[in-house]
């Protein structure tokens, strides 16, 4: 799932899981329920894909864009990402304000998803795509939003609301793009699980450092989020590069190091059968950056109780891991039913770990962008 090995080398059972993930990750992230057949699909509505029987034309101002074989969506404008080499000053494109102290030539065009290259050490050639809103806050925050297996930077950009909300709040979004054929991230190799060890995590760390150096990003307000493989990568970033990150929001992941090993798929972890003590999980995180004594990110964790791809026990193992790392009790400080909506249970552990258990929700917990922004201190 997450090494450089071709998808064709995965066990048949794993490929079936990933095909299922393709369907549910697209559908459930984009919508909480199916869209009825319409003469035209609305902006952000479904417009095609295997098994789709609804409208295949989009409302004015949007175009039908295929995310994968199972899902196509009406995207406003549907413009292809532009590419801006980091070594060449980016055009300011559609304009927009520049934060104080940042030369406008260093910024990507405003209002479009832009690929940036030559941004620093990047052993696995992870892609960097950036969304800059029309108006930036002074010393803007940064959100790194990481896609699921079979997804892409473009998919996560168009299927979540982080970019739209950036237009209201003035932050920058980076969407890493997996270089692998199955579009999963490297969350298992010793390189990615080690600070400055290489792997996908070092490439993403370079993106963060580049944004701080060139876009005027506030280094104290860098946040990481992701779904499925992107959630696992978020945990990896929190463990391997705690010095770069202030907070995370994790949708359907597994603990840091749970997939560790030579194989790109860890069935024991995925099935929720890799059980450790809180201290054992915590030691695994601490070993990723030996000698580090600085601040670590606060963690928000979401998981569905009927997840059949990365099973629900992983949620409890993540809570154990991060409460230990952050030095708080595994006993919840508060427990609130039906928060943020019916069927969700919110538990807090001090002010540094929050869990959301989603009853009768499968692998794809819908992204709650507004709650993420509140947790990040942006909204």
Automatic annotation (TrEMBL):
Listed A to Z, the keywords are: Carbohydrate metabolism, Hydrolase, Polysaccharide degradation, Secreted, Serine esterase, Signal
Region of interest called Disordered, as start-end residue ranges on this chain: 85-107
Q: Which GO terms describe its cellular component?
A: extracellular region
InterPro entries attached to this UniProt entry? AB_hydrolase_fold, CBD, CBD_sf, Esterase_phb, Plant_Biomass_Hydrol_Est
The listed locations are:
Secreted
Superkingdom, according to UniProt? Eukaryota
Determine if NAD is one of this entry's keywords.
no
What GO terms in the biological process aspect are recorded for it? xylan catabolic process
Which top EC class is named for this enzyme in its record? Answer: hydrolase
User: Hey, what's the signal peptide range on this chain?
Assistant: none
Where does the CBM1 domain start and stop, copy by copy? Answer: 39-75
Q: Which Pfam families match?
A: CBM_1 (PF00734), Esterase_PHB (PF10503)
One GO term in the molecular function aspect is: cellulose binding
In the Enzyme Commission scheme, what number(s) does this protein have? 3.1.1.-
Give the Gene3D superfamilies listed for this entry.
Answer: alpha/beta hydrolase (3.40.50.1820)
- Mostly located where? secreted
Similarity-based family = Belongs to the carbohydrate esterase 1 (CE1) family.
- Report the function annotation for this chain: Esterase involved in the hydrolysis of xylan, a major structural heterogeneous polysaccharide found in plant biomass representing the second most abundant polysaccharide in the biosphere, after cellulose.
Protein name in UniProt: Carboxylic ester hydrolase
What does UniProt list as this organism's lineage?
Eukaryota, Fungi, Dikarya, Basidiomycota, Agaricomycotina
